[in-house]
User: Which sequence fits this backbone?
């Protein structure tokens, strides 16, 4: 039988993070709704959230600000060339451009975003600069790149040989048919899917943290849907869709087919439902149900997942399809929770 605990240990080892205790004590547990947790705490989407949380935890555990924690946490998948759905090494659009979407939001309601940014390894940090150094919220495309270079970011080639190879393989048929939950290796193991050339890999890191002062921040970063049309923007850099934080209430983030999240302003909806008293999981579920209700035929074949945390530190998630995983880290634990329950 597949040993989940062993898998997490293995992934922590292969990530070269042995020195960080937070990575070697990960438990994998079936998702259940949670009670209030102690601050600080950080949660993030998918299996790669484990390593990202570990770096965020370095900030949170030393009294740092949630905003710094989420920025530094998501640097991990952004820099990981083996992660083909975030940052460097991300799968390109159908024309071969790696275009990155990211946004960040702090406890004061400040936010910044970059859309379809090319050649910069850490789009989240450019998003933060947009927030802190300009009167604007979003910069896109060439303008975002120009701004990044002015801010001292280095221009790099983000298309790795592995992603270029996968793209060229995809070009042979150029069929656009994303496969769900590709990042969730545990789920793949349990329900193997055929992945020709690992072509349809597409998942985002969304991270939410509460620091020792009880302040909430969030970050969301992705290379978006693989082989998208050039110029396509997903939900991930859209404040209210891919990410939303209200320090009075909580925060939410999303992953999956961004078009459906944008149509429903998903993360804002989750936070507003929590304001009305919904638990994080109930709020995520209601946001998923909106998507399903409006487009039942579409929803059957796509994945969208929401992850949320409230001011008390309660967290929860819900996704259209089962197999959505998220990582949770605080002083007591480093867990990976897997959503078994789902609408389908
Ligand atoms: C997007 N939401 O660009 C992102 C991609 C993603 O699982 O998260 N896929 O639509």
Assistant:
């Amino acid at each position: 039988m597949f040993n989940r605990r062993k898998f997490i240990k293995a992934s922590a080892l292969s990530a070269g993070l042995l020195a960080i205790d937070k990575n070697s004590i990960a438990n994998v547990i079936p998702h259940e709704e949670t009670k209030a947790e102690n601050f600080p705490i950080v949660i993030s989407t998918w299996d790669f959230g484990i390593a990202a949380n570990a770096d965020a935890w370095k900030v949170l555990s030393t009294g740092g600000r949630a905003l710094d924690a989420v920025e530094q946490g998501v640097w991990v998948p952004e820099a990981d060339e083996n992660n083909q759905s975030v940052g460097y090494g991300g799968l390109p659009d159908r024309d071969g451009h790696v275009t990155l979407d990211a946004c960040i939001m702090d406890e004061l309601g400040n936010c910044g975003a970059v859309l379809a940014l090319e050649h910069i390894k850490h789009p989240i940090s450019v998003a933060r600069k947009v927030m802190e150094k300009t009167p604007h919220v979003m910069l896109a495309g060439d303008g975002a790149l120009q701004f990044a270079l002015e801010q001292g970011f280095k221009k790099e080639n983000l298309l790795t040989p592995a992603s270029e190879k996968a793209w060229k393989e995809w070009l042979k048929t150029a069929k656009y048919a994303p496969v769900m939950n590709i990042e969730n290796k545990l789920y793949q193991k349990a329900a193997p899917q055929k992945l020709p050339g690992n072509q349809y890999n597409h998942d985002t890191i969304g991270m939410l943290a509460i620091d020792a002062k009880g302040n909430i921040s969030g970050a969301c970063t992705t290379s978006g849907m693989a082989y998208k049309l050039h110029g396509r923007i997903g939900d991930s850099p859209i404040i209210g869709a891919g990410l939303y934080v209200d320090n009075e209430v909580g925060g939410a983030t999303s992953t999956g087919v961004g078009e459906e999240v944008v149509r429903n302003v998903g993360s804002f909806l989750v936070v507003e439902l929590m304001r009305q008293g919904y638990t994080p999981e109930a709020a995520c579920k209601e946001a998923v149900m909106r998507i399903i209700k409006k487009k039942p035929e579409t929803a059957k074949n796509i994945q969208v997942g929401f992850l949320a945390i409230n001011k008390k530190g309660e967290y929860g998630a819900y996704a259209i399809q089962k197999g959505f995983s998220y990582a949770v880290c605080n002083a007591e634990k480093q867990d990976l929770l897997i959503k078994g329950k789902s609408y389908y």
